[in-house]
Amino acid sequence: MTDAELAAQVDLALRDVPDPETGINIVDMGLVCAIVADAATQSVTLTVTFTTPACPAGAAILAGIERRLKRVAGIESVDLQLSFEPPWTPERISEAGRTELGWEPPESKADAWRMPGTR
Amino acid sequence: MRAQSLATQYAPSLRLVAAHFALGIVGFVAFSFALFFRAAFVHGHFFQPQILGLVHLCVLGWLLPITLGALHQLIPVVFEAKVRSERAPWIALALYVVGASGFVAQLWSFSFGDGFVGSAALLVLALYLYLGNLAATLWHGAARTLTGACVIAAFLYLSVAAGLGFALALHLHAPYLSIDHLRLLRVHAHVAGFGFFGLLIMGVSYRLLEMFLIAYVKREDAGWFALAAVNVSLAALVGYHLLAPSSRLLTVSVIAAVLGIGAFLVQVSRIYRARMRKRTDLPWRHTAASFSYLVVAAVIAVIMASMRLDSAVEERLQLAYGFVALPGFIGSVIVGQLHKILPFLVWFHRYSHYVGLREVPAASELLAVSPQRVQWFLMHGGIAVVALGLLLGQGALRTCGAGLLLASSLLFARNMWTVYRSHP
C-alpha cells in the first residue's frame, strides 16, 4: 500500500465521524486540515480543527476519530494534532456539506455557492 | 493533541444539570395547571395572592431551575473554567426546592407568618449559594467576552433581586419599610426579569445562536450597546421608583430599554443573516417567537409609560405585560433552547462513545419533529390567547389559552422525557 492509498483510506474512514450538531461528517464539514500517512511505518498524522475553539463536541469528535482510525487495516499509530491556525471558515465546507446545510447552489459555473441571506 | 484546551472537559455531570431541568419541567406543568384552573380569576390589580403566587410559580418553579441548570452547563463553555464545586449546587437545589415550594404556597394564600419568612430565607440562601459557586467559577475563567459581561451583569442583578425579594418578604411579615412596597415590588420584578433574565438571555443568545445556526459575527457593537442600555434603563427605573418619582427618569428608563432591545435584535439579526445553516428548526422558532414577545412587552411598556390610562385598562395592560414578558419572552426562549441543550447533553453522555465504532444519530435526531411542531403551536397559541384574554379582560379566553399552554407543557415534558430516556 502506498502513502496516498493509506491517506485515501483514512479520508474514507473519517466520513463515518459526524459533527453531532449538524449530522454532517467531519470531512465534509471541513474539520480535517491535513492527513499525512506513512504506509511504511503504518502511522498517520492527522491535523483537525473545529468550527470554534470552544466547540462543546470537540472531545467527542477527537475520541471518535481515534476509535474509527484504529479500525482501519494498516494503521498502527495515530497522531492527532488540533489546530486553530488558520481558523475554520465556511469556505472549508464541501459541496455535499453545503447542500445538507441548505446553501443555494450556483446557478452557473461562473457563480459561487451562496450562503443564506447573501443574495 | 490539545484536547485539554476544550471546554467540554469542564462540564459537570449530566445528573446535576438534568435534575434542574426536571424540576423546571415539573414547574412548567404545575404553573400551566394552576393557570388553567385559576385563569378566570386573573384580573384586576396585580398585588393579590393568586396572581403573585402564579408569577412566582412561573419564575421559581419553571424559569429559574432550568436557567440554573443550563448555566452550570454553559458557564464552563463560555468561561472555559470548571464549575467550582459540584456539591454546592446539589445543596443549593435541596434548599431551593424546600424554600421555593413553601414560599409559593404561602404567597398563594397570603400567609405571611414565620413559615413564609423561613421559606424566603431558604430560597435566598439557595440563590446566594448558586451565585457564589458560579461567581467563583467565573473568577477563574479565562474568557472575557460580550457573553461573559452579560452573564456577570445578570448575576449581579439576580443577587440584587433576591435581596429585594427577601426585604419585601420581611416587610409583608412585619411591615418596616418607609417606602411604598409596591414600588419596591416593581423594582424587584424588573431587576429580576429584565436585569437577570433579560441580560442572561441576551448574552447567552449571542453564543448559542452562533453555535446552533453556525454563524460567525465579529461585529459586537450592537450587543455591547444593548448591555449598556439595559443597565441605564434599570438604573433610571430604580431612581424613578425609589429615589425621585420624576417622569423624566421613567422616560429615560423606557427609551433606554427600547434602544437596548432594538440593539439586541440588531445583533441577533446579524447572527441570523450570517448563518450557515439555512434551514431553521423548531427550537429556533421558539427563540424567534420569544424575541417577538419581547417587542410586544416593550410596546406595552411604552404605552403604559406614555399615556394617561383608565385604571382598569392599566391593570389589564400590566397583567398582559407580565405574562408576555415571563412565559412569553423568557419561557419561550427557555423551552426552545432546552430542545437543543438536552439532546446535545444526552448525545454527549450516551452516544458520543460510539462515534467511530458504529453509526450514531445526530443530537437533533433524538426527538422526532412532529411532536415538537405540535408543542410549538400549542405553546404559542396558548400564550397569544391568554395575553389577548388579559388585554380584553375576557376570562373565557384566558382559560382557553391556559388550556393550550397546559397541553403544551405536558407535551414538552413528554418530549424531554423521550430525549432523556434515549439510549444507543
Please, could you describe this protein's structure?
The complex is a heterodimer of chains A (119) and B (424). Chain A is α+β, with helices and mostly antiparallel strands. Chain A has a single domain, classed as Fe-S cluster assembly (FSCA) (GMP Synthetase, Chain A, domain 3, 2-Layer Sandwich), CATH 3.30.300. Chain A has a 3-stranded mixed β-sheet with strand order 1-2-3. Chain A is globular, with a radius of gyration of 16 Å. By secondary structure, chain B is mostly helical. In chain B, 78% of the residues lie in helices and 0% in strands. Chain B is globular, with a radius of gyration of 21 Å. Chains A and B meet through helix 2 and strand 3 of A and helix 6 and helix 10 of B.
List the main descriptive attributes of the protein structure presented here.
heterodimer; A: 119 residues; alpha+beta; GMP Synthetase, Chain A, domain 3; three-stranded mixed β-sheet; 3 helices; 27% helix; 16% strand; B: 424 residues; mainly alpha; 78% helix; 0% strand
Brief summary of the model shown:
The complex is a heterodimer of chains A (119) and B (424). Chain A has 119 residues and is of the alpha+beta class. In chain A, 27% of the residues lie in helices and 16% in strands.
